[in-house]
Amino acid sequence: MSPPQRYKLEFTLHVYNTSMQSVKNSLAEFGDNFMISDSSDPREKGSDFSVSINTEDPALVFDICSQFGRIRSAKIDEEGG
Q1: Residue 2 domain-assigned?
Q2: Could you read off the pLDDT tens digit of each residue along the chain, which spans 81 residues?
């Protein structure tokens, strides 16, 4: 049984030439209640992915995401556990 996840992260990841599936595959093992959706504006270059994940290590999640692109609008909530 996995330990309870202490932080809920919600953020937008702005990427170029990266698929949503690539981001999903890279993050899936680092948390639970993981959701990712495309929130791109067709008038802008690149893609925006809305990400929500519960994790023990927000810094690790952000480090992985920074390899794909730029993190925007990050929100971190500490949860009991």
Answers
A1: no
A2: 555 669 999 999 999 999 999 999 999 999 999 999 999 989 989 999 999 999 999 999 999 999 999 999 999 999 865
CATH, residue 73: 3.30.70.3220
- Tally of structural domains, the chain: 1
Which candidate, 68, 66, 32, places its Cα nearest to that of 52? 32
Q: Tell me whether residue 1 is in a domain.
A: no
Q: For residue 36, what are the contacts with CB-CB under 8 A and spacing of at least 6? A: 20, 23, 24, 27, 49, 50, 51, 52
